[in-house]
Amino acid sequence: MPSRTCSYLPQHVVGFAVDPIHVGTGRSLGHIDLTIVRDPVTQIPKIPGSSLAGVYRAYAALAMEEQRAQAGNQARRPYYPNCAGQGGNAGNEEGGHCRSRDCEICTTFGFARDGAGGFAGLASFSDAHVLLFPVATRIGPVWITSPDALRQTGVAPPANVDDDRLYYNSRRQQQKPLNLGWLLLPVEPLNANAALDGLKDFGVLEYVRARVGLVSDKLFSHIVNSNLEVRTSVSIDPQTGAARSGALFTYEALPRSTVLAWTIICRNPAHFTIDGQEVNAVRSCANVLDVVKRAHPYLEHLGIGGMGTRGMGRLRVLHPPLEGSNG
Question: Domain check: are 119 and 166 in the same one?
Answer without folding.
Answer: no
